[in-house]
Specification:
Elements (H helix, E strand, L loop, with lengths): L1 H45 L2 H24 L2 H34 L5 H28 L2 H7 L4 H30 L4 H18 L1 H16 L7 E4 L2 E8 L3 E5 L5 E5 L1 H5 L11 E9 L4 H16 L11 E7 L4 E9 L4 H21 L19 H4 L4
Antiparallel strand pairs: 1-2, 2-3, 3-4, 5-7, 6-7
Helix pairs in contact: 2-3, 3-4, 4-6, 10-11
């Protein structure tokens, strides 16, 4: 008997819970319907003749206020007004008048209702707001205050960071705008999330190369192996970086031709960046004659002293001057040092000056430079007429 009573109490409890849950769901549905009805009624007021007149006055006031802010406001106020004035005025005007026109058409056509005018007005408003936010965000990124906030001293790094943040901001605006438009056209949020997830998986498999290049562009920003203006070399490709884009990076070769490299190349290949080197190296192998062996030690010491006292040679780096090999027709003198400058033109001028001074040292020691040759020695008992017989 007690067991039956417990079962009856459980059934009654679950019944009450089910009734309350159903009541809550019905209450939520009624609340949503009431909100929709209230929004429709508000839009009916806005799209009425009186609402259009009031809206026109508001737009005129907004036009005057933003115009005064743009011309006479402070730097930030003028920047905001200049960025949002055109999108808001054009978008809100189109939303107001096209919505009013759509409402008039719906009232005179039996198979149309006011929801079409409402969606049209909401769509134009969303596009206008997204456009205004996009312009405002990019305008703020171009200000000195934003550059100081980044706290980057190198202007190339700063430009790269601003470009990257601008891309992320644009993607965010597009995603938010697309979601708002879908919700405006009645797509449920759960369906929208499922659609976004499925589309993401499909795009990931269908556009692997594009996705790889896209995310490699992000890798270039975070790792920063090079920046715009650097001279780089990778996978046999060499040039000066002009632009780091979403999909590819544009280089300018030494023949002044543009080269477009997919960003995925930088993720799978090593990158040599001479643009970030601290010094430029001078490496030369100077061939002297075999008969200059007695002067080789003196020449070596004088060339080493020249480099260690030269104002354009970095004394903190390794300096080597040695007789290091016997060649077939010369004695090899190796010169190894680094210049302080990394500018190519200055480096070439310094290297030329050093080479000429080395030549003077060689000449001053009655030595000379070797060249490839073959020396013939006649046999000891060979007579000239035997060497060159008469014809």
């Amino acid at each position: 008997m007690a067991y039956q009573i417990n079962e009856i109490l459980k059934a009654s409890t679950f019944g009450l819970i089910g009734f309350k849950t159903e009541g809550r769901l019905q209450g939520t549905g009624l609340h949503n319907e009431a909100m929709k009805e209230r929004i429709v009624q508000d839009m009916d007021v806005i799209h009425s003749n009186t609402g259009v007149l009031v809206g026109t006055v508001v737009l005129l006031l907004l036009w005057l206020v933003l115009g005064l802010m743009e011309r006479r406001g402070q730097h930030l106020g003028g920047l905001i007004a200049k960025a949002i004035r055109q999108p808001l005025l054009l978008g809100l005007s189109a939303s107001l008048y096209l919505g009013w026109l759509g409402r008039l058409i719906a009232n005179n056509v039996a198979w149309l209702d006011g929801s079409n005018a409402l969606r049209l007005s909401a769509t134009i408003t969303i596009l206008a707001v997204m456009w205004a936010l996009h312009r405002l965000g990019h305008a703020v990124m171009e200000t000195r205050r934003f550059e100081r906030w980044l706290q980057m001293d190198d202007p190339k790094d700063r430009a790269m960071a601003i470009s990257f943040i601008g891309r992320i901001f644009t993607i965010l605006i597009l995603v938010i705008g697309a979601g708002a438009l879908m919700l405006t056209f009645g797509i449920p949020a759960t369906a929208l999330a499922a659609l976004a997830g499925g589309a993401g998986v499909g795009l990931a498999f269908g556009t692997q190369n594009i996705s790889q290049n896209f995310f490699s562009g992000f890798m270039l920003f975070f790792n920063r192996p090079f920046k715009e203006g650097d001279w780089i070399s990778t996978d046999g490709l060499e040039g000066t970086v002009e632009h780091i884009g979403w999909y590819h990076t544009r280089l300018r070769t030494f023949e002044r031709r543009p080269m477009y490299i997919p960003n995925a190349v930088f993720a799978t290949n090593s990158i040599v960046n001479p643009g970030q080197m601290y010094n430029r190296r001078i490496l030369a192998n100077i061939g002297l004659r075999y008969e200059d062996i007695p002067a080789m030690d003196t020449i070596t010491k004088q060339v080493r002293a020249l480099l260690k006292s030269h104002k354009d040679i970095d004394q903190d780096q390794l300096i080597l001057v040695h007789f290091n090999s016997w060649e077939s027709s010369s004695l090899n003198l190796q010169v190894y040092c680094f210049t302080k400058t990394t500018v190519w033109l200055e480096y070439l001028d310094i290297q030329q000056a050093i080479f000429l001074e080395i030549a003077n040292i060689v000449k001053a020691n009655n030595a000379d430079f070797a060249f490839d040759c073959t020396t013939l020695y006649p046999a000891p008992n060979l007579k000239p007429e035997q060497l060159f017989p008469a014809s």
